[in-house]
TrEMBL record:
Its EC number is 3.2.2.23. This is DNA-formamidopyrimidine glycosylase. Residues 208-242 form the FPG-type domain. One of its GO terms (molecular function) is DNA-(apurinic or apyrimidinic site) endonuclease activity. Residues 2-91 form the Formamidopyrimidine-DNA glycosylase catalytic domain.
Length: 245
């Protein structure tokens, strides 16, 4: 599943289409009307967490990649279901799989930018307050909650917990306030580190526990098990990471 840093790189690659007029719009999505887009000029292409937002004259197209979404620029992918294909006088791009729909309201009324861990408006204090309302929940479940940590994915969850030496089976309420703050900070820091590594094509070389076999510090085996309610696999080192419960 693409995570926020990868989505931001995609949006960066889409920037040359800002200011261009849409000549033709196509889709295989029966509930999405593409003709509305033809003749529109792209005002802005934004990112919110794991979503791509294409702002037009007085409405926006929202695309969420979900687990298997793909973006193709100046090439086609006939094997995937086309959610939206846009052609311009200079180039084209297409969205495959994922979900797509129109937003007619102002974006500030739809999205809480303070929940996006990579947005300049990110509010760590608000995230800390939201965690306090879920003290019986596992910290690994809360970190993947997009209402609190929008854009954070499984890699970010596991790497942030490893950096802070916290076991994913720890409960929020058992964590000292300073440790919660540390986890929040590392979740954000990792996201920006991941963006830098991904841009350089070296991200896999920098993961400490995600899909790794041994701990980089102790050489002990990394555990890989499903923990919590979200059904996602956690990755941790028993030697390094403490269970707070």
């Amino acid at each position: 599943m693409p995570e926020a840093p990868q989505i931001r790189l995609i949006v960066k690659d889409l920037q040359p289409f800002v200011g261009q007029k849409i000549i033709k719009a196509t889709t295989q999505e029966k509930d999405f009307e593409p003709k509305r887009l033809e003749g529109e000029t792209i005002k802005e292409i934004l990112v919110f967490g794991k979503q791509i937002l294409i702002r037009l004259s007085d409405f926006t197209v929202r695309y969420h990649l979900l687990m298997f979404g793909k973006v193709k620029i100046n090439e086609s992918n006939e094997k995937g279901k086309l959610r939206l294909g846009l052609k311009f006088s200079k180039g084209e791009f297409s969205f495959y799989a994922g979900t797509i729909y129109y937003i007619d309201e102002p974006l500030d009324e739809v999205f809480d930018w303070t929940t996006d861990v990579m947005n300049p408006k990110w509010d760590a204090t608000k995230a800390l307050g939201k965690l306090a309302k879920h003290e019986d929940e596992l910290i690994s479940d809360m970190l993947i909650d997009q209402d609190i940590f929008n854009g954070l994915g499984n890699k970010g969850v596991n790497e942030a917990l490893y950096r802070t030496k916290v076991h994913p089976a720890s409960t929020v309420g058992a964590l000292p306030i300073n440790k919660r703050k540390e986890i929040i900070k590392e979740a954000v820091d990792f996201s920006f580190d991941y963006l830098d590594w991904e841009e350089k094509g070296v991200a896999k070389n920098h993961f400490s526990v995600y899909l790794k076999k041994t701990c980089p510090v102790h050489g002990t085996p990394i555990k890989h098990e499903e923990i919590g309610k979200n059904g996602r696999k956690c990755h941790w080192c028993d030697e390094c990471q403490k269970v707070y419960a």
